[in-house]
Amino acid sequence: MNLRRGFTLVEVVVGIGILALIGTITFSTIASAAITRDALEEEDAANQSARVALDRLARDLRLAYLTKNVSAINTYATQFVGQNGDPDALFFTTLSHRRMYVDSRECDQTEVTYWTEADPTMPGAYVLLRREAPRIDNEPEKDGLIAPLAYHLKEVEFRYINPETNEWKDEWDTNGSETSAMLPRAVQVLLVFLVPDPDDDTRLVERPFATTVILHYANKLTQKSSDSDSEGDTGEENN
Q1: Which of 49, 156, 172, 233 could form a disulfide with 87 if both were Cys (CB 3.0 to 4.6 A apart)?
Q2: What φ, ψ does residue 233 adopt, rounded to 5°?
C-alpha cells in the first residue's frame, strides 16, 4: 500500500529559511547594482556638464577683446578682470554674443561674468553661473541673462599667462598697473566636480576637468633668445 508522506515542520522551516536567504542575497545584489548605476549616472552627468561648461567658457574667452576707442557717444571701456578667490570669478568683454532675434539692436559685443554661489542641491558644493549682458556698461554684476552652467562643484580656478613675462598669474586686472590694457595670452580653466563614489554611496569623490584657452586677440608670448643661440651667433661672427 502506497503512503503519501508530507513535509515535516523542520523541513518547512528549513525551506523557508533557504528562500529567505536567497531573497536577501537577491535584494542586496539588486540594491548594490542600483547604487552603482546611480553613481555612474551621476558621473556621466558630471562629464556632460563639464564638457558644456568648458565649451562655453572656451568660446567666450577665445573671443575676449579690449579696445581703447572710447570717444564715441554712449561707449564704455572694455575690461578683463579675473578675481582670485575660493572659488575664482571672472568677467570680461567678448565678441561671442549671438543675436537671437531678427532686427534686434544687438551685435557680437557682450559683457560676460562667471562666478559661483552655494549649490542648493548639494551642501558644501557650488554652482557655476554665467551672466551675459548684450550691452557693455562696466557693471558686470547688473542686468543681463543669468544661467547655471554646472552644479556640484568643489572648485573653480582660473589662471592667466602674461604674454610679456611668460609667467602664469592667479589673477588679472586690466584696470591695474601691471596688466593695464592687456589681455592674457591664455587662460587655464579648472573645474572640480563632486560625484558619488561607486563603491561607497556615503562618500563623494572629486573629478577634475581642465582646459587651456588661447585668446585670439591677445599679444603673442615674448620670444627669448637662449644661451645656445647666442653662442651660435658668436661662433658665426668669429668665422
Answers
A1: 156
A2: -60, -40
- CA gap 103, 105 in Å, rounded: 6
**Burial of 112 by CB count in 10 Å (0-12 exposed, 13-18 middle, 19+ buried)?**
buried
**Nearest partner of 130 among 140, 110, 115, judged by Cα:** 115
3-class DSSP state of 85: coil
* Residues in Cβ contact with 22 at an 8 Å cutoff, skipping those fewer than 6 apart: none
| Residue 64: its H or E element | none
- Name the grid cell of 109: 559685443
Q: Mapping DSSP to helix (H, G, I), strand (E, B) and coil, where does residue 32 land?
A: helix
Residues 6+ apart with CB under 8 A from 233: none
Can you tell me the distance from the alpha carbon of 76 to that of 55, in angstroms, rounded to the nearest whole number?
Answer: 28
d(CA 50, CA 58): 12
Length of the chain: 239
d(CA 231, CA 104): 61
Neighbour-count burial for 113-130, b at 16+ CB within 10 Å, e otherwise? bbbbeebeeeeebbbbbb
Q: Is 184 helix (H, G, I), strand (E, B) or coil?
A: coil
Over residues 124-152, the pLDDT tens digits come to 999 999 999 877 776 766 778 899 999 99
Distance between CA atoms of residues 63 and 224, nearest Å? 27
